[in-house]
Amino acid sequence: MLVVLVVLLAVKGFAFINSLTYSAEAYEAAGKLTKQAWCAITGLGFVAQLILIGSSPLGIIHLVFTIASLVYLADVRPALAEVTSRR
Q: How far apart are CA 51 and CA 20, in angstroms?
């Protein structure tokens, strides 16, 4: 179970750091939530994971922020990359 928690921490950390790298204009051009919103969502998820590292990965807080981070990585990140021509 510790391995799962570490993997989820890495996913949330990557999503948070990646959300910081794009400009606010890119989020608007892609038609997604604002940069501040995505940075807050992914950042809170990362911090919550750090604080609750010993708890079950099936807890509601873990699930909500894991899904949010996966939505960012699967939907928002590709849209931002397309708008900014990053690969």
A: 21
* Rounded CA separation 76/33 (Å): 9
Residue 87: which pLDDT band, with cuts at 50, 70 and 90?
low
Cβ(3)–Cβ(52) below 8 Å? no
Query: For 4-14, how does the pLDDT look when each residue is reduced to its tens digit (9 = 90+)?
Result: 888 999 999 99
Q: How far is CA 74 from CA 10, 21, 71, in A?
A: 15, 16, 5
How many C-beta atoms lie closer than 10 Å to residue 28's C-beta?
13
Tokens of 22: 């794009």
Global confidence as pTM: 0.90
